[in-house]
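Q: what sequence does this backbone want?
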């Protein structure tokens, strides 16, 4: 069976730097931090990390109220990012066969705020009558995918991969498969997430959050750095328009890159600890599918969240495969770890870097940790032609994902 080629023809982002891809790239270009001290979080007993990278909600009322009622924050982010991605791709949905247009958006869970609000409303009296009729649709795990599809009137495949921090790359990989198998022509795919103290708290109790920089938020997180002490949670959404290649060419679409390879593996060893060997296997499989040699990779956008174990294992995996040949950077020092959205937001940023001919460095990387040495870290903006990139995404549960994209 001949598989279709798949390309990326549109990008949409809502990030802690603001709405839009341009706001994201402006923040990266200026080297700014979107990490803040989160006022009011100190009311949560036992919460150690007071840091977050929030999104300022804007223009949400442009979404009709009837559609917005079933949306939590993450679904609003998804709808806004989807609007930008569709416009960027130059697609008029009213002219498309919507049975051939899908929506695959992943997340860690449903709206964290809505879930918290539901329990606070119901408890302690266990009074279900206090819950409103739309709350479930905000809380369900596929809320971003469903609400975005409903908002845009899409009737093709709707899916919602849930694999924590690998969710967005799983979504892109799923969309890639659906199009190359001929099941869909166009898919809006990516990930969405929202910031809430209960989300940070879930990492906090695992000793995975940054706690030493509460008084100096811009100094954290610190991927690969010897002073790193954990991740900082962020929020937002990244949406990519994936499209069958011949179709994109026929309509004269601007093509960012071709999706050439994708892989996902698991380590089967530990529910929270990353594993170098399974990461290596994942990257190797993605490269093999792409038909790319190690020397073909011009840039690696690392997952690197600034946890002790995670950064060490990823650095070792990259070193095992590439040595110090391919430039490596993580973007989480700018806007935190957007969890289920990170793979899509960071892929969008990487595609724009490829377009601009520049690699942005790992923010807050001042002194490479001994356990993260041996790879080619990027410390300053680097002018470089990037033809083929590798994007990593690694999640709790030992879930790995790797994506290879190449310019045409």
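A:
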């Amino acid at each position: 069976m001949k598989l279709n080629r798949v390309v990326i023809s549109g990008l949409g982002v809502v990030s802690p730097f603001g709405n839009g891809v341009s706001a994201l790239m402006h923040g990266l270009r200026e080297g700014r931090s979107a990490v803040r001290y989160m006022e009011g979080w100190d009311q949560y007993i036992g919460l150690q990390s007071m840091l977050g990278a929030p999104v300022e909600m804007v223009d949400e009322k442009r979404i009709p109220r009837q559609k917005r009622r079933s949306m939590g924050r993450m679904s609003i982010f998804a709808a806004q990012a989807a609007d930008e991605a569709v416009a960027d791709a130059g697609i008029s949905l009213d002219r498309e066969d919507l049975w051939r247009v899908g929506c695959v958006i992943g997340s860690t869970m449903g709206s964290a705020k809505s879930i918290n609000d539901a329990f606070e409303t119901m408890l302690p009296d266990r009074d279900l009558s206090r819950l409103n009729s739309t709350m479930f649709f905000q809380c369900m795990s596929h809320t971003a995918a469903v609400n975005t599809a409903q908002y845009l009137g899409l009737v093709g495949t709707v899916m919602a991969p849930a694999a924590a921090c690998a969710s967005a790359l799983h979504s892109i990989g799923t969309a890639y498969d659906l199009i190359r198998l001929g099941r869909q022509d166009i898919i809006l795919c990516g990930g969405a997430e929202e910031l809430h103290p209960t989300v940070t708290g879930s990492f906090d109790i695992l000793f995975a959050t940054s706690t030493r920089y509460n008084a100096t938020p811009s100094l954290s997180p610190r991927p690969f750095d010897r002073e790193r002490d954990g991740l900082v949670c962020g929020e937002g959404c990244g949406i990519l328009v994936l499209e069958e290649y011949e179709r994109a060419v026929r309509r004269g679409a601007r093509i960012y890159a071709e999706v050439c390879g994708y892989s996902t593996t698991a380590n089967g060893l530990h529910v929270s600890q990353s594993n170098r060997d399974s990461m290596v296997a994942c990257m190797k499989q993605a490269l093999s599918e792409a038909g790319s040699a190690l020397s073909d990779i011009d840039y690696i956008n690392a997952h690197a969240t600034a946890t002790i174990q995670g950064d060490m294992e990823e650095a070792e995996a990259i070193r095992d495969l590439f040595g110090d040949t391919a430039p490596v950077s993580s973007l989480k020092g700018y806007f935190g770890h957007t969890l289920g959205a990170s793979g899509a937001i960071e892929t969008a940023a990487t595609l724009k870097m490829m377009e601009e001919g520049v690699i942005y460095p790992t923010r807050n990387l001042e002194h490479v940790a001994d356990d993260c040495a041996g790879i080619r870290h990027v410390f300053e903006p680097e002018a470089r032609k990037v033809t083929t990139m590798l994007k990593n995404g690694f999640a709790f549960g030992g879930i790995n994902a790797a994506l290879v994209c190449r310019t045409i």
